[in-house]
Amino acid sequence: MPSYTAPTKDLHFVLHDLLQVSASDVPGYGDLEADFTSAVIEEAAKLAQDVLAPLNAVGDSQGCRLENGVVYTPEGFKAAFEQIKAGGWNGLDIPEDFGGQNLPYLMGSAVGEIFVSANMALNMYQGLTHGAISAILAHGSDDQKATYLPKMVALDWTGTMNLTEPHCGTDLGMMRTKAEPSGDGSYKITGQKIFISAGDHDMAENVIHLVLAKAPGGGEGTKGISLFIVPKFMVNEDGSLGARNAVSVGKIEEKMGIHGNSTCVMNYDGATGYLIGELHKGMRAMFTMMNEARIGVGLQGYAQAAVAYENALAYAVDRLQGRDVTGVKNPDGPADPLIVHPDIRRMLMDQKSFVEGARAFTLWGASLIDRAHRMGDKDADGLISLLTPVIKGFLTDKGFEMCVQSQQVYGGHGYIEEWGMSQFARDARIAMIYEGANGVQALDLVGRKLAQDGGKHVMAFFELVKTFLKENEGDARLEGFLVPLKAASKDLQAAGMYFMERGMKSPNDALSGSSDFMHLFGHVCLGLMWARMAKAAYAALDGGASDRDFLDAKIATGRYYMARQLPATAMHLARIQSGGDTVMALGAEQF
Amino acid sequence: MPSYTAPTKDLHFVLHDLLQVSASDVPGYGDLEADFTSAVIEEAAKLAQDVLAPLNAVGDSQGCRLENGVVYTPEGFKAAFEQIKAGGWNGLDIPEDFGGQNLPYLMGSAVGEIFVSANMALNMYQGLTHGAISAILAHGSDDQKATYLPKMVALDWTGTMNLTEPHCGTDLGMMRTKAEPSGDGSYKITGQKIFISAGDHDMAENVIHLVLAKAPGGGEGTKGISLFIVPKFMVNEDGSLGARNAVSVGKIEEKMGIHGNSTCVMNYDGATGYLIGELHKGMRAMFTMMNEARIGVGLQGYAQAAVAYENALAYAVDRLQGRDVTGVKNPDGPADPLIVHPDIRRMLMDQKSFVEGARAFTLWGASLIDRAHRMGDKDADGLISLLTPVIKGFLTDKGFEMCVQSQQVYGGHGYIEEWGMSQFARDARIAMIYEGANGVQALDLVGRKLAQDGGKHVMAFFELVKTFLKENEGDARLEGFLVPLKAASKDLQAAGMYFMERGMKSPNDALSGSSDFMHLFGHVCLGLMWARMAKAAYAALDGGASDRDFLDAKIATGRYYMARQLPATAMHLARIQSGGDTVMALGAEQF
Question: Which residues in A lie closer than 8 A to residue B322 (C-beta atoms)?
């Protein structure tokens, strides 16, 4: 069975060496002294390692079951969930007014990685609740906030997002779920929603569904959509629970992975719902949840890769097979450990350099969100809006790929469920699909975000890269970072230029390259992160830091990423510049 | 549930337009007239579509079970297996002396693709038997051939390969299974073997295990290994079955996929075994099975991608979601079909161009095997020996990737087991691992095959490419093929040169690039196949062929591969040329 040890040192490095959080001007960051962040992270690590991780395989093998309308989670989930509640983890970055601790979103993300690595399926019950809280915080009335938030922050109640219907996922304009006014200010919600993560379960007293539905008078397509709060149990004036609402679980889906999370078909049969936000402006409200969720899903991508890598590494050190081609390394044993073999190294370094780069990227993104939310920084808001599809799409595509590679290190044992590596890959697979399949992320990036505010944010990103390159020009130690970063960034700019030229007159040319662009962008982001991390590591070494092995390894891992991963940008550019002709050449009947 | 329709037209194109089999000088190829091959393929297609494919999901959901020492296969498997037997499919390319039809290996491969696409897990019972037959044909005594082959060809008995033990897979020198001479010419085999595909089941009267074990006096490591025939039931002089041999199933493994195949732990407790081939030369004998098996596994890689693609295409045509950005295509419907969207097209074209290129590559490889076996052509033998790790490694890595992409076309539905796309990915995953994990294939390619016979075979491959380029120089219609093929081939040569320079003095530099080289090589092979197919398609068009849509699509699909996939070669070369320093930089304790 796999094990999990939280990457506390690496998180410390990103927070304090790379992002230098406690010196930042973002309100609240001043409190994030190293002692404090370490204490929070250590506490999260303890819970994750001792309680959540051992239940990961249990969740996978048992799954959830529906009996007489009641959903049962796997053995041990409820007790573990109680510990998450007791620790107040769900309120970490929620305002104190609603029972939270008001720490920055950044800290929520750092802790989030640990919980997701330990047990992604279990963490989703909390993650979905967090997203619903954000939507109510942003769009709910004061009454709604008072009624729902304290209970949800405390995880006495959990939340869900209800978008998808059997015939529509991406194209929500086709939605059929209806909301009819009841005359008392509430609505009757009728329809079927599918793929509802954490749709129902036995770990909380109530489930607060956020449901998209069409209310009369809104017009066609997505314009007619509004967002509603539909509680599983009605909430009385005094906050106590009343009658069961007319919402029920149709079935639990059999999925490839995340078996520990109950993915439900939800049937709304005239269920009472309460409008949240403005009528017919439901899509906007939903996107509040969605944007946060997308970053959370990107985090899932690399967090699964992180735990998979950790186990692959342990196996590579432990498993004796074959001899080092340059000379025996374990003369007293029957063979050398796997890790002596270059191709095993290549796989481990791919994983390590991705995971550490992705961690830096995601936490930097989280710091941009704090900057936007806590300082009203519009530039930070624009930049993270641009980067969100990259975080979601690139990190989940690569995260899955790295889980598959971790599994590969195990050879035949990787294919046997008992060893747990299959689960990491199967669980990680969903992250490429939900909260907008990665093709939709690429479309969002190229079709919307790139030109947003006149292309201001992508220009700002290029400026960041340029500034870094300029500031460090001539630093011989960083040459192995600056040269590839410059080349990769040039590829990204050339691709952006291609889209600008073609986008309007030949949208198929641009959209045929959208996924390649997302990957190209992702590599440049990780390249930038690695260059910055190398600089930070050298600074720490120059400053006499004691953990020199760790810092040397950080730099060496970065060099690997630059040398072995950044060459992908030229390939993506070549594909993009080959245009849409070959992509669109066939008539539908010619396939 | 997914469906399957065999790609009869595409197989016809490869056999007759590309390979022009009936005009070939290989003995037996003259009989492969179009009418004949079509009849064979249609018959296989009927069985695959009507009988095997509908059982694929059943096999996945039910799996195999072990009860009181007896292995039961999923419902319907036995009846389907009877139909495979009745059709004589297992003997298709086996000499007539042993009940076969003596058709070329090429025909066995064409039919093999169809069976594997329809039901990979079920086909493995037959596939393993076929491998065991080959080993006995090549190394067995006349008595052994007479005793085992007719029954195995008829599938009354099936076969297995027993190599792996709990502590060793790749490194067979550590093997612990012992063979002690009994004094009567037979041996007593004692030990445990794991991951034994089709290890036991309820579909045949007997199971003939081919088992590697160490007999006394052979020395250390792989030198002491011999190959033994260990029947589940002893075989009497008259061919009837006798007592149960001391071999039993320890357990059936719980795997990520191919649940319909019983992957067994086999316990040998002094079981009676018969030496096959020379004492202490077991590895050589095993490689006879292994080489054939490796090509068969490469075939599995693309065959799973083929059926996954077919279903993704059907879904993309059927599912309505969003509108074509260049103008509504389905004005009477609520949305346009998925296939109008460029990023969906990109995925479908990736899959289509890979599958069709891989099919051509594999069948061309099969024709080299026929040339080697039927004509004693040493050059063909050397070339296919070089290409075998590429067929196995590249086609299974890419085949899995394409299955994952097919799944992605389905969005959320792709993650739900009911739709069947998860199974294709889970089943295809094993092909990257068994018969030598793909890292071992890459090592075989770079460490052994590249320099074999003084590098003669890789030079012959380059010559093939060069000749094609030269012969078609100036053909404007082929320019979109010749230019990228030339560039890709140059990258491959540069990589080969790098290995030659570094291989001896710095093996880590070479081995760090081995997987990239395997992929680089694979792309060049598929590029060559596409260039040849384009030429063949133009020739057919020029000759007035009636199915112009099909031929146009073939050319367009090839153009896609050249434009969108071949740019990967430069990336692989860059990675290779970055050497082993970044790969090997970390001390084992620095990870």
Answer: 170-171
Does B128 fall in a domain?
A: yes
Q: How far is B132 from chain A (nearest CA, A)?
A: 21
List b or e across A321-340, with b for residues whose CB sees 16 or more CB atoms inside 10 angstroms: bbbbeeeeeeeeeebbbbbb
Q: Residue B335 is nearest to which of A171, A437, A512, comparing CB atoms?
A: A171
Domain of A69, CATH number, reads 1.10.540.10
- CB–CB contact A411 B169 (8 Å): yes
pLDDT at A502: 86
Supply the CATH number for residue A166's domain.
2.40.110.20
**A430-452: pLDDT as tens digits:** 999 999 999 999 999 999 999 99
| d(CA A349, nearest CA chain B) in Å | 7
Asked whether residue B195 falls in the same domain as residue B262, the answer is yes
Tell whether A418 is within 8 A of chain B (Cβ): yes
Q: Which residues of B touch A588 (CB under 8 A)?
A: 317, 337, 339
- In single-letter form, the type of residue at position B133 comes to I
B199 touches A: beta carbon within 8 Å: no
Say yes or no: A27 and A135 in one domain: yes
pLDDT in tens, A243-298: 999 999 999 999 999 999 999 999 999 999 999 999 999 988 888 778 889 999 99
Pair A575, A463 in one domain: yes
Residue A499 contacts B where some CB pair is shorter than 8 Å: no
pLDDT for residue A504 is more than 90: no
Say if residue A461 is in the same domain as residue A578: yes
Predicted TM-score (pTM) of this structure: 0.98
* Residues A239, A121 within the same domain: no
Spatial distance between the Cα atoms of B500 and B106, rounded to a whole number of angstroms: 34
- Residue where a domain terminates, one of A109, A139, A169: A139
Are residues B204 and B113 both part of a single domain? Answer: no
Whether B258 contacts B74, CB under 8 Å = no
Q: How far apart are CA B193 and CA A385, in angstroms?
A: 54
Domain that includes residue A239, residue range: 159-280
pLDDT of residue A290: 83
Q: Does B264 touch chain A (CB under 8 A)?
A: no
Q: Judge if A81 and A124 occupy the same domain.
A: yes
User: How far apart (Å, rounded) are the C-alpha atoms in residues A438 and A426?
Assistant: 17
Residue B504 pLDDT exceeds 80: no
Q: How far apart are CA B129 and CA B124, in angstroms?
A: 8
Integer Cα distance of A34 and A162 in angstroms = 39
The model's confidence at residue B300, banded by pLDDT at 50, 70 and 90, is very high
Which residue's structure tokens are 């064409």? B110
Residues B559, B478 within the same domain: yes
Between CA A278 and CA A273 the distance in angstroms is: 14
pLDDT digits (tens, 9 = 90+) for B72-113: 999 999 999 999 999 999 999 999 999 999 999 999 999 999
Q: Is residue A413 part of a domain?
A: no
Pair of tokens at residue A163: 């978008």
Name the domain count of chain B: 3
At residue A190 the predicted structure's pLDDT band, cuts being 50, 70 and 90, is very high
Residue B289 lies in a domain: no
Counting residues of chain A whose pLDDT is more than 90, the rounded percentage is 94
Considering the domain boundaries, does residue B494 fall inside one?
yes
Q: Of A139, A167, A189, which residue is a domain's last? A: A139
Residue A367's pLDDT band (boundaries 50, 70, 90)?
Answer: very high
- How close, in Å, is residue B221 to chain A by CA atoms? 10
* Interface ipTM: 0.97
- Please list, in sequence order, all residues whose beta carbon lies within 8 angstroms of the beta carbon of residue A4, skipping any fewer than 6 positions away: A48, A49, A53, A56, A117, A118, A307, A310
What count of CB pairs under 8 Å joins A to B? 263
* A62 confidence band (pLDDT: 50, 70, 90): very high
